[in-house]
Amino acid sequence: MKIHDTIFAFDLDGTVTKQEILPVLAKELNLYDEMSLLTKLTLDGSIDFKQSFRLRVEILKSIPISRIQEIVADIQLDSNIEAFIKQNRQRCVIVTGNLDVWIAPIIKRLECVSFSSIANVDGDRLLSIQEILLKNKAIFETRNQAKKVVAIGESYNDISMFTEADLGVAFGGIHDPVDELIQVSNYVVYDGGALCNLLETL
């Protein structure tokens, strides 16, 4: 197994993507505003991630998986970050609490390793959540492949990823990183191009 000098671990929603995915999905049920509020409270740490994620999945699971994947395939990504990941796909991983079957089109597009929550499915139907990802566990599992792990994210849920990584970069691409994450970060960046330039130096 090849050992890399540095592996970059990216949060997905609001970091690689230019939109939070679950509120976009909720448009199918005319619940965009409600899902946006619930997502914001979760990102801020006002609501426990696991509790909130189970609730949000329960709301969205009536949408066929195939339809969700069609929507997710059209989600806009930060062009600079997408290019960086594709150019360094052997050294980049996605670490997200989102469900494997929902984010599959983005992971296929990026062609990199991903850690995510796992769904129980039956054909085109989502039955339940099998496992919710612990982000620090994903970083721990990545350690045996690199001398250094750099985490990139923006929400309260990324704190455990940052504390397990060697370096943390708080990224304010579509909204400001939460204060608690900034406190455990080594760098704070607000532009995708600037972020990638920084990562090239780490």
Question: Would you spell out the secondary-structure blueprint of this structure?
Answer:
Elements: E1 4-10, H1 12-16, H2 21-26, H3 32-43, H4 49-60, H5 65-73, H6 79-87, E2 92-99, H7 100-110, E3 113-122, E4 125-131, H8 135-142, E5 146-153, H9 159-164, E6 167-171, H10 179-183, E7 187-189, H11 192-201
Parallel strand pairs: 1-2, 1-5, 2-3, 5-6, 6-7
Antiparallel strand pairs: 3-4
Roughly what is the average pLDDT, rounded to an integer?
Answer: 95
The percent range for helix content is 40-55%
* Biggest beta-sheet profile: 7 strands, mixed
Number of strands: 7
CATH class of the domain at 4-18 and 76-201 equals Alpha Beta
Shape: globular
Q: Specify Rg, calculated over alpha carbons.
A: 16 Å
Please tell me the CATH architecture of the domain at 4-18 and 76-201 by its name: 3-Layer(aba) Sandwich
Q: Treating each run of at least 4 consecutive H or I residues as one helix, how many helices?
A: 11
First-last Cα distance: 22 Å
How do the strands line up in the largest sheet? 4-3-2-1-5-6-7
Give the percentage of residues in beta strands: 15-25%
CATH topological fold name of the domain at 4-18 and 76-201: Rossmann fold
